[in-house]
Design goal:
49 residues, alpha+beta, two-stranded antiparallel ribbon
Amino acid sequence: MLHRQAKGFAQNHKVIPAYIGSVGMFNDTKTVFVSPIMKQYVLVSERII
C-alpha cells in the first residue's frame, strides 16, 4: 500500500535534484528523516513559486 502511494506521489511530482547531507531515524517512532542541503536551483525555484 505505502509503495503504491509513494510511486503515485513520485509520478505526479517534478524531479528536483538535491544533495542529502545526512539520513537518520528516531528509534522510538521508527521515523526516517533526511537533511537536504539546498542548492541554487532549489532556491531559485522557491522564489518563482
